[in-house]
Amino acid sequence: MDPIDATDDATGAAVETRLRELEQDMPGMYLRHGTVFALASAWAERYDAIMALVPPDKRAAVEVRLARIGIRWGVMPGSRVTVELRVSDIEALARARRRPRGS
What secondary structure letter does DSSP report for 35? Predict the structure, then answer.
């Protein structure tokens, strides 16, 4: 997740601050908003407020970051990777990658 280039101007710094605040406030949002609808509404308000600050040339990057935050907290569609990899699986994968092609 590349941060917005905050050296561009104060807007970049403000966006970075809002993204950090959103991440830090997500547990509190779950506690304050008892229904799925209320949580989704609060998320949408924060999302829109952040996107309103973003310059057009940075919108795609910020949308991706917001999507990742939303997926992690279950307020946006997408899959979270929560699979446990066993050491034996990693070792087998490493052996397979070291094996010459065609063997």
Answer: S
Structure tokens of 76?
């946006």
Q: How far apart are CA 64 and CA 103, in angstroms?
A: 40
Answer yes or no: are the C-beta atoms of 6 and 38 closer than 8 Å.
no
> Which candidate, 45, 60, 52, 44, places its Cα nearest to that of 4?
60
- Host H or E run for residue 82: none
Digit-coded pLDDT (tens) for 39-90: 999 999 999 999 999 999 999 999 999 999 999 888 888 877 666 656 666 6
Q: Which two tokens stand for residue 37?
A: 């609808």
With beta carbons less than 8 A apart as the criterion, state whether 16 and 3 touch: yes
Distance of alpha carbon 44 from the chain centroid: 15
